[in-house]
Amino acid sequence: MELLKKLDAQLRALDEQSLIRVRKTVETPCGPRVIVDGRPMLAFCSNDYLGLAAHPAIAAALQEGAARYGTGSGASHLISGHSRAHVLLEERLAAFESAYLVEARALSFCTGYMANLAVITGLASVDRNTEIFSEALNHASLIDGARLARTSVKVYPHADVEALAVLLEQSSATNKIVVTDSVFSMDGDLAPLPALLALCERHNAWLIVDDAHGFGTLGENGHGALEHFRLRSPNLVYMGTLGKAAGVGGAFVAAHKTVIETLIQRARPYIFTTAAPPVLAHALLTSLDIIEGEEGRHRRSRLAALVAQWQDGLTLRRWQPLASQTAIQPIVIGRNDETMHAAAALYEQGIWVGGIRPPTVPAGTARLRVTFSAAHTTPEVAQLIAALNQLERT
Ligand code: PMP
Q: Which intervals hold domain Aminotransferase class I/classII large (predicted)?
């Protein structure tokens, strides 16, 4: 059929550029040791930074939650899907971020992708004269949120506060929204949030911070990027995800209570979707207890020790590890095919690392995205280091 032939031709073209993406099937719970398509593998590619995705206490809370709340929410939040479990989760999340926001309130979402669509479109919808200022390396969900807002979008270069200052200066918008990842998902570095916030306060702009990779891992208490940088401002709008360090799924926005009420009333990705199963919200309460408590502190310091071990042990010459202090430790190889060959060679040895290609990263900067978890052991990290050092030389 003509229609299918066109799709086939495009898929073949992707394949010829080493751009076809394949899904591997994991048979076991997420963790460093997994069975993938029937093979035991040592994985360095999940975002389960604290090793909570298979935590027995959270699994037990999930069972208890199912007994108490059932399995589905049955409707959107504004109809009848908003359960006591969502209320408790939102109260707990607001408390998590209350030191960094003014009159904090939180709103839970099914995914971070949807939370980003909601927060950007919701804040943009209040004023026809809105301009969005988006960091060049922002996650796809922020880019899509800005597109969906159907307003002017200016992209500023990565971490370039000066360039953003010029754009804000030039703007005549009456509603200015700066949007940034806190931890860049494919680079692992941190946005200069204190300087960005100072700029936003000077220009009366919102600063939306996507802390998908910082929530749970950054800050003494795991509260994330705002705690890490000790920020506090009514201009801050915080987005955290709950499927990475928190080990379950979902996301939330925390901000001044007026911002949250605005999202409830105006944000279509919040309003027109079925609420997440309350059982997930219930399990997340246990996850948050772990993150904030002694165990979370211990897991964060374990993660930092593994990252230090990795940085000390790598002796690469051609391939370029990026400067990152977070659990995301990419190695830029450059070419798509060489990157995928390296990932395949590691896979052959039983080590699973993600190969990341355009359009996720700029052309010519294909990379291995190594991620660590507090559940990894020192010998496991040593095995990865030895394999990579060796592989680069062959
Ligand atoms: N923001 C960033 C920076 C991310 O890396 C991701 C997930 N990869 C998201 C948002 C989306 O979060 P979720 O997976 O919960 O949809």
A: 40-388
